[in-house]
Amino acid sequence: MNKSITKLILLMSLFCCYGITNNAEAQVILDSQNKITISLKSGDIVTLYGKAKTRDQSFSNEYYYLPANMGLSKKPDGVPEFLFAKYTTEERTDNGGVQGAILHALFQWGLSPTLEKEATKKLKAKLLKLKMENPLYKKIEPEGATINGAVSLKTGESKFRVISATLDGSEENTILNSSAPVLPGAKVAIASKMDKNEAQLLASTFEKGRSITDLSISIDYKYDVLFPAVDGEIIFNWEKLETLWEQHKIKHEVTKKKETTKKDNSWLFIEWSSEETKEVVSKIEHKEMSRVYDRMVEKKVVEINIDKNLDDEIANQITTQFMALFMQSISNASTEAPSDDDEEKKDKNKNPNRGYNPNISYSINIDKLQSKFKKKTERFNLRYRTPITMEGSITENLAAFYDQVQDNENCVYSVNLNDPFFQHRDIMMIMDLEAEDIFKEEINYVTVNVRKKRNKGNDFQDQVTIDRKFIEENGIRASLTYARGEDNNPDNYEYKTQWSLRGGTVYPPNPAWTKGDWEGITLNVPIRPRTIDFEADLEQLKELDIPRATLQVRYLKYGVEYQDNLHISVASGKGIVNKRIFTDDHAVGYGYRLILNHKEKGKLVFDWQPKNINDDYVYATIPVAALKEDRKFIDQLLEAASELGEDTNPDGSVKDDKTILDKILGALGALTK
Fold it and tell me: pTM of this prediction?
């Protein structure tokens, strides 16, 4: 029913109202074992990770917090940045009148100085207790404990979602899914124009007696933690899981023929059933996750081989962490509001719309599952301190924010559009999410030219230039205003944008005019940051006498092919590396190839392979048998290595006669969407 609200515009401003600093410039390595959760008086649950020590496994008393305390941002005068404006005209709809509403709200997360002070005090108290009870905290100094800001979230992989149970969405009731702010205090916004029916529906959930409204916002984020080093390994046998999955599908097809009312269920393949109802269920609650994991261990999908002499507490922590990793590898985590009979939650938080929601459940993600099946087996060598990517989320309902502003005339009001004030039109120009990072590294400025052809009188034409200084002083929004005059159609205008790139070139060289409307212009940066993760089995490389593995990546940026390299060295002890690149927003894929440095044979160069643009992970799959026995195969790799040359220009772009993307990406359909 909701056509316009699904066109939510996602924005982000670049300043922090708390003045909070973040450790984005110097990546802090987090210790997966040194994890502490505390509850604040506000009802917020704050999870903290200690900084990992790379030389030993003792605990540090320097901590960083996961996203918490999501709320409305405020202007310098203290007014919340929330707008719900219902509008109407004197004319009836059949005579050209309009009715509806505009919703616009800016949110941010992060601990204010006051909350951070409270959190630090509670952290010290908890550390003092742990020091007496837990041997792992024996050497820590609670009084010197500090909270040094927020955990570094993975850029480009953290998502901001707007969720509705009744409004039309693409999947799982999600009507907006885009990148989220990774810095505390940074602002993210939603904006929507609604017709009269949509406006009345949303207003009724805001203004009538209710405990929750039908719009929630959620930030799903990813971050890296360092797992402990012990004598052992954990194996995920995805091939065995695939066998169970296929058996489930066959069993389900037979069941459907016998009982047409039987519902399909993603968890059938592990024979999961609810203790209370004895019926198969589609979602697994967070508190029951261990039973699913035990089932996987029983079926040999997960194999845990840890030194029996290891301290039970450390072994249990490692198992718990890999249990969470396994679940996030095959499923989606969803957060639901606490039920009315959840007395414990009510005691901690009287308002059910406030604070972190711990009621998490998991449901199978077919795409994730199929991706894991292709890997066959995944081994985690615990002899090294291995960085593992973890997931989390924070969710709030829009009703919680409306309660704060419903009596504020600056935030909630009605207006009649026949007011003479509306005889002028403001054109808002808003940068998209990655603007700050991209302006720092890739772009000098963007120029927006606007023109309005009038029926009578002179045409209107003006321009705005946005550079890094403009953003620092004014944020990510700019505006132009033009007068209606005697124009019969004052709303429609035209605009074109041109980006100045580092090095002095402009993109596109000859931009075309685009029609705009009074709701504004979203300036989409033509490139997007992506973090490529490259992983290899260090033990396997060592066994094959390969001290170094290189991933060579080719991608499009501004329509030009570029090349980058990622290196894994056995001597470094790190089995996974990553690199941030910028690719065209419209690119559908990139190319990669593996280069191995063999101690005796020299360089071995594999063929170029295509990769979907949404898949940023590459595993060094090495054909061990062929490298040991197939001389013809080895000769082909050596011949390819002999053809290695200077393929790139000084700026990293590929020379015209060395490009390969137009050939290898044919399998993906095209170079662009």
Answer: 0.50
Q: Which residue has the tokens 């205090």?
A: 185
Residue by residue, DSSP assigns 42-86 as TS-EEEEEEEPPSSS-PPPSEEEE-S---EE-B-TTS-BSEEEEE
Query: Amino acid identity of 461?
Result: Q
CB 22 within 8 A of CB 150: yes
CA angle 95, 99, 102 (to 5 degrees): 150
CB contact at 8 A, 230 and 314: yes
Token digits for 616? 């940023």
The whole-number pLDDT of residue 348 equals: 39
* DSSP H helical ranges for 531-585: 538-543
What does R_g of the chain's alpha carbons equal in angstroms?
A: 28
* C-alpha triplet 575, 578, 581: angle, nearest 5°: 160
Judge whether residue 334 has pLDDT over 50: yes
pLDDT bucket at 327, cuts 50 / 70 / 90: confident
Token duo for residue 665 = 């990406």
Hey, where are the domains in the chain?
Answer: 5-227+398-404, 232-383, 421-523, 528-668
CA 325/CA 310 separation, integer angstroms: 21
Q: In this structure, what token pair is assigned to residue 445? A: 């400025």
Residue with the bigger pLDDT between 117 and 249: it is 117
Neighbours of 530 (CB within 10 A): 20
CATH class of 421-523: mainly beta
pLDDT-wise least confident of 34-43, 363-372, 609-618: 363-372
Would you say residue 183 has pLDDT above 80? no
d(CA 393, CA 378): 26
